[in-house]
Structures
1.
Amino acid sequence: MFKKMQNIDTAFRYVRSFTLVVVTGSLALCGFTLYKSYQWVAGAQSKVFVLANGKVLEAYAADRKDNLPVEARDHVKTFHQYFFSLDPDEKVIQTNINKALYLADASAKRVYDNLKEKGFYAEIISGNISQHITIDSVWLDMNQYPYAFRCYATQSITRTTSQVFRSLLTAGYLRNVSRSDNNPHGFLIQRWTILENQDLKSQSR
């Protein structure tokens, strides 16, 4: 009888140990599954799918600070391309200038007003002149806010009989503003000045 009780006790301990192992393993498996599920959900939420020209493209969400220098440079480039890309058409000029002025403060408006008073835009229209700009580089100081920048570019001025290339160097500062359709990068150029704008070469057409 005593030996039988010992066998029952031993069997009970074995069953209890086995049950503890199974329960512990189940809890560990559930915890691992939950962890991987949260990881998968977080990864899925950081992805955005964009439909472009009938193709599905995958985009990834990121903090703005990760792309801040890239966005700042593109903002500076976009402003200069709008402001200095001109054709002999009053509507084209006004459209480009209006787009540029959404990206900068009153300092850019002052430069525009001065050029307009001097008859610069009227001369472009009457002389059938086209002006285009190539951005060579944009220097940024992201260590201090507002962010200082310098834009190095080359202007191409096409007249009826000649083509002139001019160097262009401008400087200013960038401050953060709300994003909008007119200002998708969320920056505003302030204290913008033209430091250099001189002829490089001229050639006949």
2.
Amino acid sequence: MNITATTVARPGLDVLVSGVSRIVARGLGGRETAFAVAGLMREHLPGLDILTPEERAGSPERYVSHILHAERDFSVVGVVWRPGQDTVVHDHVSWCTFGIISGIEHETLYQDMGDHLVEIGRTDNRPGEVSGFAPPGDIHTVRNTSSEIGVSLHVYGADVSRLGSSVRRVYDLPVR
């Protein structure tokens, strides 16, 4: 994953960061935190101008993550997906909340059966939609199925600037 960190004006980021800080300070469990942050993000999902035009261009090679804010307990990351770009099957180090700003993020969910994965669901996340999850049970892959560049905002319950990624494990097990 290509991760960049920048310090530029980010319309809507301050409101989101202060709200997430208040939620995290409550000391809720991972799932409860993800859902509370999702409620906040539904009310305050920033627009495309949260990223610069250069950041929104993405990369022809793969999706790109831009760290917009990081501290010990959470990070805010803008993800840019050109049409057709996707992730490997993976899970996460922490809870996550994401909001779709543009494009369609097609998500396929899996369950680990030890020697193989079983597909347990699919969903198309569209602009304005927000969702959250927490390990365990967060094994998935994501693909931009729209014909436009996709932009999504992710809040992770970890300092991804220190970790380098929100991914805990990549799965190369067969799907049955």
3.
Amino acid sequence: MIRILIVDDHPLMREGMRALVASYVDIEVAGEAADGEEARREVLRAAPDVVVMDLHMPGTNGVDATRAILAAAPQTRVLVLTMFEDDDSVFAAMRAGASGYLVKGAQQQEIILAIRSVAAGQAIFGPTVARRIIAFFSSTPAALEKVPFPELTGREREVLDLIAAGRPNHGIARDLVISAKTVSNHISAIFAKLQVADRAEAIIRAREAGLGKTR
């Protein structure tokens, strides 16, 4: 029997996952959580085999929760099930230790196969995510060098682009569907990596590199 923990801030998504696995005799729901911190506590309480994890949630996000869960319970496997398939989300989840990554809207059989696969110790990715991974690693060094500020992550470049366009923190959070705290964390990382003292200096550097012009 594979015991799963469902982590999603939308009750309908949790109910849908419960209904999906109810028809399979080898999978049962060990618990639910609506955010990353609750998920960590539930893992310690229920000891599930697989955590089916959303990424973008209020409070502790899925990436940070994945990292915390695997530090506390390394035998647990994490399967990401999210609506986001951008490079930042995919590679952040992989770096945190997720064993699988599916995009919401995946076929029911695909989700069940992924749960069984990660429970068995395998890594599994949906077709669109797999294509993004292949495309990333097949990129030539020359192409990668053309990216402005290669020391930044893709998400940090998005934040810097919006800063250069004059967007305030709350506007950036709304545009990127992330919390204001996450925006502040990204900005702190950007300042440190670019070795700039403040927002004005970051804007100058970003605009000199061509950012902020398409917003």
